[in-house]
Amino acid sequence: MCYADRMPRWLAHVVVVAVFAALVAAAFARIEYAWNWAGVWEYRQKFVQGWLATVGISFAALVVSMLVGGVAALCLSSRLPLVEAVGRVYVEFIRGTPLLVQLLIGFYVVASAVGLDNRYVVGTLVLSLFSGAYMAEIFRGGLAAIPQAQRDSARAIGLTPWQTLRLVILPQALRLVLPPVAGQLVSLIKDSSLLSVIAISEFTLNAQEVNAFTYSTLESYLPLAAGYLLLTLPLSALARWLESRVRFEA
Amino acid sequence: MLLHARDLVQRFDGTTVLDGLSLTTGDIQSLVLVGPSGGGKTTLLRILSGLDVPAGGSVSFDGVPLPRDEAALRDYRRTVGTVFQAYNLFPHLSALDNLLLPLVHVHGLTPAAARERVREPLERFHLAAHAHKRPAELSGGQKQRIAILRALVVRPRRLFFDEPTSALDPEMTSEVLEMIRKLKAEGVQFVMVTHEMAFARSIADEIAFVSDGRVLASGAPADILDRCADERLRSFFSRILI
Ligand SMILES: Nc1ncnc2c1ncn2[C@@H]1O[C@H](COP(=O)(O)OP(=O)(O)OP(=O)(O)O)[C@@H](O)[C@H]1O
Ligand SMILES: [Mg+2]
Q1: Shortest CA gap A148–chain B (Å)
Q2: Interface pTM (ipTM) of the complex?
Q3: CATH no. for residue A224?
């Protein structure tokens, strides 16, 4: 057995990141890029504000999209044709069209029509509905994956339908959907960058503005990438940790 | 228990599975259902245990008819216990928590009282050492014995078993059958579907032969298993009693 088989997991990660960083550094060295961090440093406040806006919007959309996704998943699983159809049309319509179009129509048409003019609220809602459609399919799959035998067992011991959902179905379904939900949340955070098209002053729009002021493209966008990783990496790690804690199958 | 089932009809997607099934027993402790695959044993047992409602006909135990609406049926299910062939236990809960769940959430015991209730039975059936394991960590036989205990600790009027050993290898089968034998000796009433003919003969007060959605014969084990009056019984038994 060689050392590579036994090396600690964290060390393996460090090694891979280091090699990757070296490659990137070599690429930059080759194109002899003239760094100008000083110009961008002037605008650090803008990065911080944009990042905080992205955190806030993502967190709000995360909560709302899970609620929307949960309700839509129950619709999709319904035995009533009309209820099922509502869920199905919502999911297919949202998943089949670009978020960009949904944002523009949502803001310039729907929101204007109902007199909702706070672009942050509109943007967060559209993002939630968008992500909720994906959550709905994930949740529906999780519910459907619980075998009928579990429902039979629950009924046999006299549980009510609500107790069955709460004590038997959901605890098992949540374990199943945790990894895909975490992946969807990571997507949601990155998708929030599209809110820049309706002039929401979030992380990406602010980085674009810094770029316009300083003409330092890489210096503006590398911090952008780092800022998103700062959110998504802990989320993935948290999901993996939760997953290992709640695993029950051998 | 005095079981009286009359003209039971059950259909799934247009196919008639129970075709006017009738069965009357004496005042017995144990009834065993036997018969060919697809004959309707599981369908009948699910009706008797209050999981399904027949499309037609009626059932009564000791003169009390089974209700047809779901809320009343749920109350009925709380007074009996059902053990399926497999996958009875909730995989996200330990064996102990599987036992406690109905006691706490259905029968209103405090967690402490529920623990006290299951302590002695766990020891009596040599399962105490496994109580903290998840179902995935238990053998098939241990899983079934925990499932039987879960049905038992709520002090049901009777138990229903649907082929509780047919997913098990011979050694585990005998440990589960041994447990059922003990329960019979303790006076527990039950209705059981099984293909274990030797066991059926020794445990059953009465045997009912279910085929093509009807009871073709019922009565004392010796009458059913030895006389084999009916052609279909004869061919069934000649196939399984090699
Ligand atoms: N939920 C269902 N939907 C459709 N058909 C069903 C359903 N349950 C049972 N059946 C059919 O009803 C018939 C009787 O089934 P049942 O399970 O009662 O037989 P069984 O005597 O228990 O057989 P086995 O010994 O194989 O368990 C079979 O033909 C089966 O395919
Ligand atoms: Mg069956």
Answers
A1: 10
A2: 0.90
A3: 1.10.3720.10
